[in-house]
């Protein structure tokens, strides 16, 4: 080793030491950079990241409340819940939905109906929701799917509460049904500010009690604060706010009466509304034909939907609150009362009844051809003299009629606790002005008043309105708001909130006037158009038949061979017992002909059932189907 | 006799390196228990690998420098051949061709190259010790670029960059001119700029690599995709605060928000549960290890020893820095484990083999003194 080499080595060692020092500085500076990054994250920005971490790990999982149960006045369950498994698909998680469904059907039976229903649900909802493709799986099906579930991402089995209507079609319009929340419902819920309370809930009431008492039936959604992992899977529960179950409802409806009436209607179309006049509580609310509300619960099959929707019988129409019909002669007792209250001279006179009334250039025909000769006020109700009421209407004038009828909620909603009630039409010059566009059509012609007097013309009311007015009359002017729900029961505390039967108003009618009208209606039952139907009744009822013209006959004689759908509607209003009524009702049988033919027998049997607890022993023919030919006696007294 | 055995078997072990390594390993075992959600099988596995790795370290520490010098070229050649074999018939897993089947097991040749390349380059400069010219640096660069290129093709950006840096460290310690280093730095910066600001960076890097860089600059661009790791990592670390949430109490960790939380992202668990204080302790332990490595390099008796020890030490540092930098969101996500802490046997064995090499270098010096 030479000197030079050693010197060289020394220089190299020195150079290397410099490099080591440089490396050490490099290491130190980069570690200092790391430390300052840690300091920034963990000391300076700690709060921010703490919040982010909290948000990351806590998720609120809604716990839907169980829906309240609906019972009738005697505790019969009309709507309840049961738990069942459903097979649900999240469409947004599927690459090929058709293929997934195809694959699924090799494991679990999926019918064409299920597929149609699923498609309809998809059209109505947002894609990221999970939708049931099959409901009410058997345990075996659940097990079969569980073994294959790994093949189906985005498909799951859920235990859900289902709504069930054990009575099926009975009272379907009244009870209504629940259906899946669709986009439109969601908007509404948002608008009402209750959307949050519906998180985790798939269904809400669509019609009937289910809809109008949605708020009470639904309850309050609970929440579970759960720790979740990045995949959204719940790891453990931190806190739980239990849901508040929906309130149970007890209806004022007597479901046995309801069923009796529905059976009486059989295949015929129409409606019956029975009210307890002392409270306004509905005892029955029939709209025939009905439908099976259970069809709607898991989303209705489009085929069923089409059938219901396009049927000429309109089974989805709630005739009780939305069916508007001219009241016909059932309007007369109210006309009579209005005349008495207005002290119009005709009420004190006896007129000559030739079987028609000439007003201006028009001849108004009486349904009792030939007339009765002389006709008094009291008699006119019993025999339903059109001629008398034509003249009465002219004497009173349309304004007086409209003013009085408005106090009975004719032309206005009764305020029954069901949504979508129609107001009907109470004709008046004001109404006509609003209703029509051109000055010629807006003008009220005095001849139009004549028809109004016998419940024809523009007159158009719902069975609910007719029953409501009848109940008010039966109650001698004390008016209650009709309501279907009697009690709202908190399922936890058991607190019962009674829907208080507070009178809406009390009419200023003179008692003698009311009693005089009611005597006339008793006469209808005793000897008039209702006599045949009420033969042998052990109570005294007060009623009035009515016939609503569907097709104007223009003076020609009533033709029995006329097409069934063009036949007159058969009306009957009644309350009983007349002195101290416990029930008031209105019945309409569409195209049933004379009121005495179809509607009165139904009313009789409903009253017997309600008052005596059993049906009357009547000949079968009168009890159910439409008699082909009206008896001579009935023809003699008109409708 | 006992003295002889002591000299032969125990004395080569550097007590400082062993102490710091053991401390990090104990810390990492405690951490793994939490990161794995108390998976005892993983703990047992880790301890098994620790024993194997420590044994390998001990064996290497007992190997003389002369033997290491003789092994340098064959190790490099074998490593290179294996890399070529991988490129031709390697197993594809997770979209990358990194593994080679040998009988019953499969190996990752890039792991071997991590040590073989610095050994080879140290041997090369050692060979021309007295007359190092610029052409030697050029040839060294070629020796370096071939394996790095092969690994980058697999693709495995992280490992290739690490191996490239280990080669570069040898060049650095061998006296690569400061001017050239400055030039390289400028080039590197320019390349980084191009990669991050020029859309067609796909031509240079794989698409996913581009995405990682772009995502690192703005993780919110892809919060559920590539940015997810960075966001969750920084949230975990940041939410740890100064003292941490405590062992086993990291919510981010235990709720599965941290991906690869026992391997590449284990530092997020550490930062969350032990906080800034824990991070500082880990940094200090790493600094002590690196410092000891640099001292060994400085005191090494041969150029081979100096270069090898210096390169291994700085490579170890690079591991630590890149991993912590990536988990805390200042570097793009590359698949590099946190040295001695991440779960994974191969990485631990190769790291402790590196420490064995350091000890061997140190041991030779002791022998020379005595």
UniProtKB/TrEMBL annotation, chain A:
Q: Where is the Penicillin-binding protein transpeptidase domain?
A: 270-607
Where is the Penicillin-binding protein dimerisation domain positioned along the sequence? 62-238
Q: Does the keyword Hydrolase apply?
A: yes
Q: Show the GO MF annotations.
A: penicillin binding; peptidoglycan L,D-transpeptidase activity; serine-type D-Ala-D-Ala carboxypeptidase activity
Q: Which UniProt keywords apply?
A: Carboxypeptidase, Cell inner membrane, Cell membrane, Cell shape, Cell wall biogenesis/degradation, Hydrolase, Membrane, Peptidoglycan synthesis, Protease, Transmembrane, Transmembrane helix
Instruction: Give one Pfam hit by family name.
Output: Transpeptidase
Q: Which residues cross the membrane?
A: 20-40
Q: Which residues form the active site?
A: 329 (acyl-ester intermediate)
The family database entries (NCBIfam families) matched by this protein are listed as: pbp2_mrdA
Family assignment? Answer: Belongs to the transpeptidase family. MrdA subfamily.
Q: What is this protein called?
A: Peptidoglycan D,D-transpeptidase MrdA
């Amino acid at each position: 080793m030479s000197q030079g080499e050693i010197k060289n080595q020394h220089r190299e060692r020195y150079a290397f030491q410099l490099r080591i020092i440089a490396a050490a500085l490099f290491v130190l500076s980069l570690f200092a950079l790391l430390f300052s990054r840690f300091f920034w994250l963990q000391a300076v920005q700690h709060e921010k990241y703490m919040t982010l971490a909290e948000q990351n790990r806590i998720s609120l999982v809604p716990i839907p409340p169980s829906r309240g149960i609906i019972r009738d006045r005697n505790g019969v369950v009309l709507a309840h819940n049961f738990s069942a498994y459903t097979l649900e698909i999240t469409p947004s998680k599927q690459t090929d939905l058709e293929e997934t469904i195809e694959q699924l059907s090799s494991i679990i039976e999926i019918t064409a109906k299920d597929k149609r229903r699923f498609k309809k649900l998809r059209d109505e909802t947002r894609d990221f929701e999970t939708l049931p493709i099959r409901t009410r799986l058997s345990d075996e099906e659940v097990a079969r799917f569980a073994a294959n579930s790994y093949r189906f991402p985005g498909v799951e089995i859920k235990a859900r509460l289902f709504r069930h209507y054990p009575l099926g079609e009975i009272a379907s319009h009244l009870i209504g049904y629940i259906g899946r929340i669709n986009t439109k419902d969601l908007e509404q819920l948002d608008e009402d500010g209750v959307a949050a309370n519906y998180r985790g809930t798939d269904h809400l009431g669509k019609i009937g009690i289910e809809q109008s008492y949605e708020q009470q039936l639904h309850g309050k959604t609970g929440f579970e604060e759960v720790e979740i992992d990045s995949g959204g899977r719940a790891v453990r529960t931190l806190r739980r706010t239990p849901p508040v179950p929906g309130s149970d409802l007890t209806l004022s409806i007597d479901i046995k009466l309801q069923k009796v009436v529905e059976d009486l209607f059989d295949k015929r179309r129409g409606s019956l509304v029975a009210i307890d006049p002392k409270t306004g509580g509905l005892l029955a609310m029939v709209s025939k034909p009905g439908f099976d509300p259970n069809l709607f619960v898991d989303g209705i099959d489009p085929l069923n939907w089409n059938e219901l929707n396009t049927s000429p019988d309109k089974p989805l129409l709630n005739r009780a609150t939305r069916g508007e019909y001219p009241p016909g002669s059932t309007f007369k007792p109210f006309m009579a009362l209005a005349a008495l209250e207005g002290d119009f001279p005709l009420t004190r006179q006896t007129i000559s009844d030739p079987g028609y009334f000439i007003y201006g250039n028009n001849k108004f025909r009486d349904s009792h051809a030939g007339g009765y000769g002389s006709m008094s006020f009291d008699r006119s109700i019993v025999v339903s003299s059109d001629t008398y009421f034509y003249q009465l209407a002219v004497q009173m004038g349309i304004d007086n009629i409209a003013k009085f009828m408005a106090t009975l909620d004719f032309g206005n909603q009764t305020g029954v606790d069901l949504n979508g009630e129609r107001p009907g039409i109470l004709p008046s010059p004001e109404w006509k002005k609003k209703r029509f566009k051109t000055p010629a059509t807006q003008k009220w012609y005095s001849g139009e008043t004549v028809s109004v007097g016998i419940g024809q013309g523009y007159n158009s009311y719902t069975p609910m309105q007719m029953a409501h007015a009848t109940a008010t009359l039966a109650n001698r002017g004390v008016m209650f708001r009709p309501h279907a729900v009697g009690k709202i029961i908190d399922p936890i505390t058991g607190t019962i909130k009674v829907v208080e039967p507070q009178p809406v108003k009390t009419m200023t009618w003179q008692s003698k006037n009311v009693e005089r009208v009611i005597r006339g209606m008793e006469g209808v039952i005793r000897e008039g158009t209702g006599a045949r139907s009420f033969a042998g009744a052990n109570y005294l009822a007060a009623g009035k038949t009515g016939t609503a013209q569907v097709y104007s006959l223009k003076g020609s004689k009533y033709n029995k061979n006329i097409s069934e759908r063009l036949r007159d509607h058969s009306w009957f209003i009644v309350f009983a017992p007349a002195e101290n009524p416990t029930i008031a009702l209105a019945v309409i049988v569409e195209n049933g002909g004379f009121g005495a033919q179809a509607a009165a027998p139904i009313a009789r049997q409903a009253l017997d059932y309600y008052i005596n607890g059993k049906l009357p022993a009547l000949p079968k023919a009168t009890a159910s189907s439409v008699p082909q030919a009206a008896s001579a006696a009935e023809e003699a007294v008109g409708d | 006799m006992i003295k002889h055995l002591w000299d032969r078997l125990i004395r080569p072990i550097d007590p400082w390196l062993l102490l710091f390594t053991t401390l990090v390993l104990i810390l990492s075992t405690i951490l793994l228990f939490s990161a794995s959600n108390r998976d005892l099988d993983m703990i047992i596995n880790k301890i098994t690998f620790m024993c194997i790795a420590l044994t390998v370290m001990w064996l290497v520490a007992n190997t003389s420098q002369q033997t290491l010098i003789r092994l340098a070229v064959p190790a490099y050649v074998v490593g290179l051949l294996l890399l070529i074999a991988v490129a031709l018939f390697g197993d594809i897993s997770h979209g990358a061709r990194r593994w080679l089947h040998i009988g019953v097991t499969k190996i990752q040749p890039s792991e071997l190259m991590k040590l073989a390349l610095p050994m080879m380059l140290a041997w090369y400069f050692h060979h021309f010790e007295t007359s190092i010219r610029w052409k030697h640096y050029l040839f060294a660069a070629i020796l370096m670029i071939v394996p790095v290129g092969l690994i980058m093709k697999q693709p495995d950006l992280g490992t290739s960059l690490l191996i490239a840096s280990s080669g570069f460290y040898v060049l650095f310690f061998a006296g690569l001119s400061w001017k050239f280093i400055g030039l390289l730095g400028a080039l590197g910066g320019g390349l980084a700029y191009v990669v991050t600001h020029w859309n067609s960076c796909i031509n240079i890097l794989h698409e996913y690599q581009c995405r990682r860089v772009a995502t690192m600059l703005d993780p919110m661009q892809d919060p559920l995709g590539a940015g997810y790791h960075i966001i969750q990592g920084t949230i975990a670390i940041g939410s740890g605060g100064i003292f941490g949430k405590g062992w086993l109490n990291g919510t981010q960790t235990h709720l599965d928000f941290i991906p690869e939380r026992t391997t590449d992202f284990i530092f997020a668990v550490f930062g969350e549960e032990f906080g800034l204080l824990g991070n500082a302790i880990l940094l200090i332990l790493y600094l002590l290890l690196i410092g000891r490595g640099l001292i060994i390099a400085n005191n090494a008796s041969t150029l081979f020893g100096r270069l090898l020890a210096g390169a291994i030490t700085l490579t170890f540092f690079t591991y630590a820095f890149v991993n912590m930098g990536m988990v805390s969101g200042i570097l793009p996500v590359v698949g590099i484990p946190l040295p001695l802490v991440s779960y994974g046997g191969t990485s631990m064995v190769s790291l402790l083999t590196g420490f064995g090499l350091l000890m061997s270098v140190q041991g030779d010096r002791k022998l020379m003194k005595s």
